[in-house]
Structure formats: structure tokens, C-alpha cells
Amino acid sequence: xxxxxxxxxxxxxxxxxxxxxxxxxxxxxxxxxxxxxxxxxxxxxxxxxxxxxxxxxxxxxxxxxxxxxxxxxxxxxxxxxxxxxxxxxxxxxxxxxxxxxxxxxxxxxxxxxxxxxxxxxxxxxxxxxxxxxxxxxxxxxxxxxxxxxxxxxxxxxxxxxxxxxxxxxxxxxxxxxxxxxxxxxxxxxxxxxxxxxxxxxxxxxxxxxxxxxxxxxxxxxxxxxxxxxxxxxxxxxxxxxxxxxxxxxxxxxxxxxxxxxxx
Length: 263
Description:
Elements (H helix, E strand, L loop, with lengths): L14 H16 L10 E8 L6 H7 L5 H14 L9 E6 L8 E2 L5 E7 L9 E8 L6 E5 L5 E5 L2 E3 L5 E3 L2 E3 L16 E6 L4 E6 L10 E5 L4 E4 L7 E2 L5 E4 L3 E7 L7
Parallel strand pairs: 1-2, 7-10
Antiparallel strand pairs: 1-4, 3-4, 5-6, 5-17, 7-11, 8-9, 11-12, 12-15, 13-14, 13-16, 16-17
Helix pairs in contact: 1-2, 1-3
């Protein structure tokens, strides 16, 4: 166990010293939530800005290949000081040259910290594109961004739904194209929206895209697993190359552009 309570005037130059300094700094920030106030903490973002020559020290210090070990170290500090972190709190360690303005620089080390709560979040941005692989949409490819809000997917750009209201589908598959795949897409099939906490785009099935209606299926590119969305409340975190099947045979592909996530 490292001595996380000692002080050092100079930046550490070995793995033990870096880890010691990081944990000491994290302890000081977490102590502000003593007495169980840590239950409002959703996660900790640690931004490491070490020069190339020292990067290997920081990677070893935070157990870069086994991040749960460093999380366990932080959890022990939280337990010792009755901070009351929730079971679901997340640790995100990023090696970067740029630090968000909301993050607080740490003394002794080349790093900054941001503690996320429901009311205190880093505004992230991202963009991606949707490519139509089968079926006929108004465009072959759509660029989407985190500023777009909710992006509806369905048959017709302006579709009348129950109650006489109209739904605007930003990614629309017209019914008059003669393409058979479009016939099985619901007017309110699905939507995509940005999740700022996770820094990613999420796919949700809408009323017409959940059983017993026309379904939404996703082929996950990372492991070629096929999943179905059974609820309009539980979304799927989209990843590079995921393919989304709308209805029977219409297929769209999701991709981030060049690791675009910022923040």
C-alpha cells in the first residue's frame, strides 16, 4: 500500500511516486464529499498530460491495462473517509494534450481532475455518419452531431401518427421509391440521440420499432453479435461499424469520423 499522505515538492520520477501523488490529490478532492455526500458523484475523469518521456510512468501508475485496479485504490480511499461513492461510479482516464476548462489541474503531477455529478458535467461533443446500406432514404449518407438533439428514423419525412399529430423523421425512407425494404419501416421506428455522460450516440426503438411491431435489430461490429431492442426505454450504445436493421431488410451503418469524441 502506498503512502498517500506524505508530501513532495517536486514532480515524482518513478511509478510509485506518480501513483502516490495521484492518489493523494484524488483523496484531497474526494474529502470535500465526506459524510456520505459522495452518493451524488457519477464518475471521475482523470486527464493525464504527461510528456512522452514520462507517459510510461503514468500508464503503469494508473494500471492502464487493468483500470479496475486503480479504481479499487480510489474506492478504498472513499471507504476510509466515508465518502459514500455509489456502486456504479465510473473512472475514466484519458491521456491527452488538451484538458477541458472545467477540469482542475493537480499539484505535483501532469494531470487534471473532473468529478462528475448530475449537476456538474463536462459538455462533450461528437459527430458521426449514418450510411444507408439497403433500402432507399432521402440521402445515401447523413452526418449527425451532438448538437442535433433527437434524430428520428422512420418511413416518410413527415408522418402522421396517432391523435392526428405529425412526426418529423430526419432520417426518412419515403414510401414512393419502389424499394421493397422501405415498406417494413414504421413511421415512428427509432431514433438516435447524443448521451453526454457517456460521450456517445445512443439508439432507441420507438413505438413502431418494438415487438409486436416492426423490429429494430443491431449487428454489433466488435463481436458480430445480433441483438434486438425490446423496449423504448433501454437504448444501445452505438459503436464503430454497428449495423442497424429496420423492419425486415432495410439496413443502415453507423460510424464515428476519425475518433471524433472531444471533451
